[in-house]
Amino acid sequence: MDVSSTLVLASLVLLLLLVFGMRKGKQGLRLPPGPTGLPLLGNLPQLNKHAPFKSFLEWSKQYGPVITVYLGLQRVVVLIGYETVKEALVDQAEDFSGRAPVPFLYKATRGYGNTRRHMTYKNVHYAFALAFHYHCLLISNGERWHQLRRFTLTTLRDFGMGRKKMEIWIQEESKYLVDLLRENKSASFDPSFFLSRAVSNVICALVFGQRFSYKDAQLLRLLQTISGILKFLSSPSGQLYNIFPRLMNYLPGRHQTIFREVDEIRNFCTEKITQHQETLNPDDPRDYIDCFLMRLNEEKNLPSTEFHNDNLISTVLNLFLAGTETTSSTMRYTMMLLIKYPHIQEKMQKEIDDVIGQTRSPTMEDRKSLPFTNAVIHEAQRFLDLVPMGLPHYATKDISFKGFIIPKDTVILPLLHSVLKGEDHWDNPWTFNPDHFLDNNGNFKPNPAFIPFASGKRACVGESLARMELFLFLVTLLQHFTFSSPEGPDSVDISPENSGFGNVPRRYEMIVTPR
């Protein structure tokens, strides 16, 4: 046999071994079933590139609610359906609390605020990098995650997140937003950056202790940069970076520009931290940065502390990024739905007028007296299905689940789409219908399958803030304005721009008419 034939035969044997190894799993453990993939590429060629979650749903019909797929060389287990997702994230919360490492975020945060500095990329060949679509502390694990998450939750609550103090901040910001929209009452405009400036100012009050003028050019530039980062993450280039990070670091492309833009935001956060260091009064902390600096000073001589400047910069960066886009996108989509369905907008306005009127600022206490309004906001979140595949979890050890073994270093995707659009828990899952959250008497009716913020130990730390913002901002806007499309409601396309990894509301023009 000549050398070339020997090489061909050896290659075939290696490929067969690889395929066999992929199906057999680690040390012969019983993996969840799934479609057969190609060597090296796995199941990537079989995926619906525009909506991968649709491929997972189709495969689940054949293989069940827990399936194994391969994205390149990375093993991924997908969890489908409310019962399966709940069993994993709630009933076995500790087992599934690991967060998958994301190469883009690792580079953007320079390894801080996330996993340990010595993390390698050998197990991160997967294409799901939606980490900026939820609030901070997304991809850290172990002691770092426990310390920073506990500190962040406690500190933000101390400064009013989910409490009366935060209500007052949002009420004040709502007035600024109303004044801004009044200036555009006669012309159609894209509401995107109007809403993101208002939402960003709320997180800025918590983190930086200040709000910014809507005419602040730096703030608008940063918000445009954040929007661009999110588009990149969901683009083919963003997916490619997370599959081949080492290679992409040496190649030109959009990712290089994006990292420079991330540095702009980092520099902005660093500048704010420096200002805080120069004016810090330990007896009167003003915001999250002050509290972190105080803890940093207390533990500066502890070698194992996670409270140091690098983690502060990255955590503030995460809070600023994540505290803006998801809520403003949801608000923008809700307003689009109200333009599409003016009869729903009118019914909300009548309910608000009857309970609150058009002059008093709404409070969270009003929510229980506004069941229809509350139902519409919930249904808008469900129908948008912002992050259909959820954020990637990670097996930090071998996990026994539903008679299978999920080996260590497996990426785990809880398919939130299958929960928010599951036919077992929603009468008309593919229709926008506020009745999903109302009983026969018109009272608000919660649904356990409503988990847009995920669930368990990795649920969004900003959930209470997001809920408060959505309710107070939207009710205030409906008190003062009626929203319409310059081309009529039939022209409004409420189908999101599905990039494959996130359902982003389409850009649109609207007219605000003072009431």
TrEMBL record:
<dbReference type="InterPro" id="IPR001128">
    <property type="entry name" value="Cyt_P450"/>
</dbReference>
<keyword id="KW-0503">Monooxygenase</keyword>
<keyword id="KW-0479">Metal-binding</keyword>
<dbReference type="GO" id="GO:0005789">
    <property type="term" value="C:endoplasmic reticulum membrane"/>
</dbReference>
<dbReference type="GO" id="GO:0005506">
    <property type="term" value="F:iron ion binding"/>
</dbReference>
<dbReference type="InterPro" id="IPR036396">
    <property type="entry name" value="Cyt_P450_sf"/>
</dbReference>
<dbReference type="GO" id="GO:0016712">
    <property type="term" value="F:oxidoreductase activity, acting on paired donors, with incorporation or reduction of molecular oxygen, reduced flavin or flavoprotein as one donor, and incorporation of one atom of oxygen"/>
</dbReference>
<comment type="similarity">
    <text>Belongs to the cytochrome P450 family.</text>
</comment>
<keyword id="KW-0492">Microsome</keyword>
<feature type="binding site" description="axial binding residue">
    <location>
        <position position="460"/>
    </location>
    <ligand>
        <name>heme</name>
    </ligand>
</feature>
<dbReference type="GO" id="GO:0020037">
    <property type="term" value="F:heme binding"/>
</dbReference>
<dbReference type="GO" id="GO:0006082">
    <property type="term" value="P:organic acid metabolic process"/>
</dbReference>
<dbReference type="GO" id="GO:0046222">
    <property type="term" value="P:aflatoxin metabolic process"/>
</dbReference>
<keyword id="KW-0560">Oxidoreductase</keyword>
<feature type="signal peptide">
    <location>
        <begin position="1"/>
        <end position="21"/>
    </location>
</feature>
<dbReference type="InterPro" id="IPR002401">
    <property type="entry name" value="Cyt_P450_E_grp-I"/>
</dbReference>
<dbReference type="InterPro" id="IPR050182">
    <property type="entry name" value="Cytochrome_P450_fam2"/>
</dbReference>
<protein>
    <recommendedName>
        <fullName>Cytochrome P450</fullName>
    </recommendedName>
</protein>
<keyword id="KW-0349">Heme</keyword>
<keyword id="KW-0732">Signal</keyword>
<dbReference type="Pfam" id="PF00067">
    <property type="entry name" value="p450"/>
</dbReference>
<keyword id="KW-0472">Membrane</keyword>
<dbReference type="GO" id="GO:0006805">
    <property type="term" value="P:xenobiotic metabolic process"/>
</dbReference>
<keyword id="KW-0408">Iron</keyword>
<keyword id="KW-0256">Endoplasmic reticulum</keyword>
